[in-house]
Amino acid sequence: MSGSRGEAAMTTEHRLAHSAFTLTRDFPVSVERVWRAFAEEDQKRKWLGDADTFERGEWRFDFRVGGRDVDEAQFHGGPRSRYEAVYTDIVEPVRIVTTYDMWLDGIHMSTSVASFEFEEIAGGTRLTHVEHGVFFDQFWEDGPNREEGSRGILESLAAHLA
Predict the structure, then answer these.
(1) What is the pTM of this model?
(2) 138 vs 62, residue with greater confidence
(3) How far is CA 23 from CA 26, 97, 145, in A?
(4) Residue 74's closest CA among 58, 59, 55, 60?
(5) Collapsing DSSP states into helix, strand and coil, what is residue 25?
């Protein structure tokens, strides 16, 4: 190849990386209360992102098997993030399984499978979040950031449930 097309092809690096993690968090409230935080739109919107650290974009919530969620936001002074999920399994109030894709400033960064298991324990609920992700191209090193972001989301949930 000659010219800029060959050069552009050489500078584009296509990579994949895989990342998996498990997070477990105990909440001092009933399984039903934690479940509702995921299953009811007004509750989920409160803990998942009606904050002043970003400007909300598109939001869709369709909590049923085959339903789609969309959550898009522009971080102040930062990138636009877009989450699109499909619910693949829901067993009330036992588990939720989704597949989801993430974009950052319009670039597809990852595809993941995530599960949430709700277990009654003495004094409350144990939530177990397991996630397996595939990260694309320039985002191939982003797996640890996803785990850290998921920890932050569980912190938001804990504050909402308190």
Answers:
(1) 0.86
(2) 62
(3) 10, 15, 14
(4) 55
(5) strand
Going by C-beta distance under 8 Å and a sequence separation of 6 or more, which residues neighbour residue 39? 63, 92
N- to C-terminal Cα separation, the chain? 61
Nearest to 15 by CA among 139, 116, 104: 139
Region of 123 please: left (phi>0), alpha (psi -120 to 50) or beta.
left
Tokens (6 digits) for 117: 């298991």
- Quick one: which of 70, 50, 21 has its CA closest to 159? 50
User: Which three-class secondary structure state does DSSP give residue 140?
Assistant: coil
What is the band of 53 on the pLDDT scale with cuts at 50, 70, 90? low
Which CATH fold topology does 14-161 show?
Alpha-D-Glucose-1,6-Bisphosphate; Chain A, domain 4 (3.30.530)
The whole-angstrom separation of Cα 100 and Cα 71 is 11
